[in-house]
Design brief:
This protein is an alpha+beta fold. It has eleven helices and 19 strands. The strands form four sheets. Strands 1, 2, 3, 6, 7, 8, 15, 16 and 17 form a nine-stranded mixed sheet that branches. A four-stranded antiparallel sheet has the order 4-5-19-18, with no helix packed on it.
Length: 407
Amino acid sequence: MERLLAREDVAAACRLLAQDDERTLREQVELTEIPAPSFHEGPRGDRVATLLRDAGARQVTKDEVGNVLARMGPDEGAPFIVSAHLDTVFPAGTNVTVSERNGRYVGPGISDDARGLAALLALARALDHETVPLAGPLLLAATVGEEGAGDLRGCRHLFRSNGPGASARGFISLDGAGISRIVSRAIGARRLRAVVRGPGGHSWVDFGMPNPIHALGAAVEAVARIPLPDAPASTATVARWGGGRSINAIPDEAWIELDLRSEGGTVLSDIESRTRESLAAAVRRSNQGARARQGTLSLEVTVVGDRPAGRTLDDSLLVTAALAATRALGREPELVASSTDANVPMSLGIPAVTMGAGGEAGKAHTQQEWYTNTGGSNGIVRALLTILLVVGVGETAPQAPLPSTSE
């Protein structure tokens, strides 16, 4: 790190990021105000592609699913990937206008992840304008489908067997604000939708026939009693439910959606198995108590989201570099777990982390989401230093594969 910071070209790139701070913030606001629900990221992706070209990136393209990709550094060799995601959790029609008062910017998605996208553009400008000689290729990626139902689809496509990520030496996702946290552990998530169907009927005349809501109510109670380990940290949440057509009718269909999470892939599979058995047992009990002539309930369970668990070792080159870069800016780093685009490469054994892109933020995933630019450029400097430590500058690049394990 001392040798890196002593280089004039690196120091100049860091100065440029500070000088570029106001432009980066303007682009962050501009991108926030382009609606980008998951599966509808096209207009925002088009604007990011234009801005990447303006920033000096080359070979700027869109892939089959809508990811925006750009290249910097040499053409030859395994790429190091730096990404931010295009999509937001907010549905079409959401008012995405950004307001500002006393330095606080409020707007849906202003931090998650317009901040990451703006940082990606700022990095491209810094590397191009100051021509820091990267020793290896850099792939910049603005990905689709990171949020919710998107289920990491853009990153999955990036790391498909014949995709540009398949041979990647490492991966950084710039997601949200902050300058201290480093996500090095990927929380796996299995999302299930359980639908129970039955014959339905009149609430008085047909009382006693199997009721899908009654069955799912018992299943919810059973899921809440599933024992969960403290290590690896794990959760099981019934997040949504619904069903029924009228207040005076026994429903013919009801459903619940569940979010199961764990830092351990094997544990996550065990929680899913126990959850499925709890659902099936509740339906069996309901059928056993129903009047035979009234018919029975059926159960259908569908996986609607599957985020793999994984981990990048604390002593891997990538994590070590991120720790050093954080400390170089006078902050004490914190290694944490989360569910981000980095889940995909971690699960494949590719070293990956997620980092905030500076500033401070709060109320993510709400229409009151806010961002303040306190130390904003420092977050992007941290990303730049991490990239340069791993990719290398000039003749200093490490050529061996980066060590990592994933679970």
